[in-house]
Structure formats: structure tokens, C-alpha cells
Amino acid sequence: MSDLEHAAARLFCIGFTGTTVPPEMQSLLERGVAGATLFKRNFESGPQVADLCADLKTRANRPFLTNVDQEGGRVVRLAAPFTRLPTMRSIGQSESPESARRMAAVIGRELRLANIDMNFAPVLDVDTNPANPVIGDRSFGSTPSLVAEMGTAWIEGLQSAGIAACGKHFPGHGDTAQDSHLELPRLSHSLERLAEVELPPFIAAARAGVAAIMTAHIIFEAIDPDVPATMSPAVLTGLLRNQLGFKGVIVSDDLEMKAIAHHYALREVLVRGIRAGVDLFLICETPDLQNAAIDAVIDAVEQGEISIAQLHAAHERLDILFSNYVRPAQLGDLSERWEMKQV
After folding, report:
1. Which of 181, 295, 299, 315 is catalytic?
2. What CA–CA distance (Å, rounded) separates 331 from 55?
3. pLDDT digits (tens, 9 = 90+) for 108-119
4. CB under 8 Å to 39, separation ≥6 — which residues?
5. Greater pLDDT, 268 or 184
6. CA-based, 20 to 30 A from 64: which of 58, 282, 283, 343?
7. pTM over 0.85
8. What top-level class would CATH report for the domain 3-338?
9. What confidence score (pLDDT) does residue 259 get?
10. Chain-wide mean pLDDT for the chain?
């Protein structure tokens, strides 16, 4: 494998089917992908998922990022013996940041026992639209102050347990009437409205040192009327990096979601996304697409559309996340350690 191939592959975190490592994953591990995302399709039991993540880390033979969406409520990938949390809305209604912090720490300790390094949580979207088909009770509440307070506590709890938190979906998915898994939403809010409602939770998260922030596949017309946030320099570099001061890893939402896949060619998404400031792209299901994405980045560098320096800038941010949160595989019987998770 060439240095360029490894550099390109490190921009991707991939998903797969099955409860053991499938054959097609081996070549992607060898190409140098940064990590893997787990779903319900990868889970049978606590010990099994711990062994699966350990196997991935061992096969990679280098620091390798494992992650999952374990929010609570209706978005959980790992069932019992993992603690089943109520919805974020229910947690927000308690108005107890300390309670949120403790719950997140429990989840964090469980994920660490299972060889998982990052949780794609908390949701930092403000629930302002009752017709929203995708956020709703995944949000802590309908006011930016409550979401900021509870979201910050959640981040602190997860990261105190050694799990990277990833706030989502920047710059805000709470007021859409469309699901970006299925279509490409547009929001026409003014900059003043965004600054008042959508952005405060992300500002608080950045100040709290959240390890990563995930992009929204949404067009925010007041910032960039042409492309969704995932592909927009104005949103990711201008707003998130320069104005909000976020220095961590920018993660794309899954590129196989229809908001992206049905509107843009893969190569265009990657070139624009890298130029915009994405450090890590999620491609959560299809091996052919995952390999094609790596090839597309290699070609774009060779054609001068993106620079190797842009890849290295992303690597530097990933290096910090890896240093702080990515751990070697813990081997052995998970059940022997599980009783200690609350300690």
C-alpha cells in the first residue's frame, strides 16, 4: 500500500454487516481506514461485541477507532447487558445536569469495557419543530439553554469515562420537517435566528472540549444556499472553526444517506467535504462504495483538486482524538469485568 493510499483511507470510518469481521473488511483494514461504526446488525451480546471490536483493533495492528450511536431512547445499537437509557427529552425534563452527567458516565464505562472508543452523542439539536420526523425526543428539549446545559453535562460524563463524545448535527437539525436519511432538507432561517436558537448548544460543546462534532446533511440558505453543511466551507471552516473556535474532529454524517447519495456524486462530496473541513467521513454499509471513496480521494490528490496537506491537517486532528480516546483491545471475558462498570 502506498503512503497516499493510507493517507486517503484514514479519512474514512466504515460500517459492515455481521457479528464477526467479514472478509471484505480485511482489505479495507489493510488500506488504512481509520475505524469502524457498529450497528444493531453487529450486536448479539456484550461479550460478542467486545470481542468483535478487539478483533478489529488486532487485525488493524495500529490504533483503530471503534464507535457507535448509543444515545438512549429509540437510538441505541447495543441492547442488554448495556444500560437502556430513557429518551434525551426525558433526561432534559429532569433539568438535572448532574443526572445527565452520571448517566453518560455509566454508558461511557460500558462502552469502554466493550472496546468502543467514541459515541456519536449527544444530540445538540434544539427540538423546535413538532413535525420533525427524525429528531423529536432525541433532543434534550426545545430551548437552546437547556440543550446546551444538558449536552455539556453529557459530554463531560462520556469523556470522563474515556469515551470521545460527538455532538450532532451541526449547525442544527431540530427545525426541519424532512428526514435527511430520506431527502435533502433546506432551512431558510436568518443568521440571527441560527445564532439565537441553533448554535448555542454547539458553542457550549466546543467550549467544553467535545472531541468531535458531526455535520448535518442540510442546506442552510443564510450561510450557503448551494450545498449542505457537510460540503460547505462557509459552514464548517467559516462558522464552526473560525467563529465558534472548534478545534476537534469534524465528522460527516453517513454519506449513504439519501440527502447526499441521491443529490451528489461521491467524488464531488469528498472533494468539497475535504475542502470544507471534514476530517472523517462515515460510509456505513457498502464495501464497494467504501473502496471507491478511497480511490476517489487518491485520484483527487493526484489531479490537484485537493492537496496532501489537507489530508495531513485532518490527520493531525485525528491524531489528537486517537491519543486521547482510542485504546488497544482489552482481551478476556467481558462478564468478569462487567460487574465493575458502576464502580
Report:
1. 181
2. 9
3. 999 999 999 999
4. 15, 68, 69, 77, 284
5. 268
6. 343
7. yes
8. alpha beta
9. 85
10. 93
Spot the catalytic one: 117, 224, 253, 254: 253
pLDDT given for residue 134 in this prediction = 78
pLDDT exceeds 60 at position 302: yes
User: Residues, the chain, total?
Assistant: 343
Helix axes 266-276, 308-325, angle to 10 degrees: 70
Pairing of strands 12-14, 281-283: parallel
Beta strands in the chain (DSSP E): 12-14, 35-38, 65-68, 70-72, 75-76, 118-119, 164-170, 186-187, 212-215, 219-220, 249-251, 281-283
Domain coordinates of the chain in residue numbers?
A: 3-338
Residue 121 has pLDDT above 70, yes or no: yes
Is 6 a catalytic site residue? no
Confidence of residue 64 (pLDDT cuts 50, 70, 90): very high
Q: 151 or 188, which is more confident?
A: 151
Residue partners of 314: CB distance under 8 A and separation at least 6 = 10, 11, 274, 278, 279, 280
Q: Can you read off the three cell numbers belonging to residue 7?
A: 493517507
> Which amino acid, one-letter code, is at 85?
L
Task: Classify residue 247 by burial, with Cβ atoms within 10 Å: 0-12, 13-18, 19+.
Answer: exposed
Helix axes 287-302, 266-276, angle to 10 degrees: 60
- Contact between 122 and 165 under an 8 Å Cβ cutoff? The reply is yes
Q: Which residues contact 336 (CB under 8 A, 6 or more apart)?
A: none
Cα separation, 270 vs 305, in Å, equals 11
312: annotated active-site residue:
no
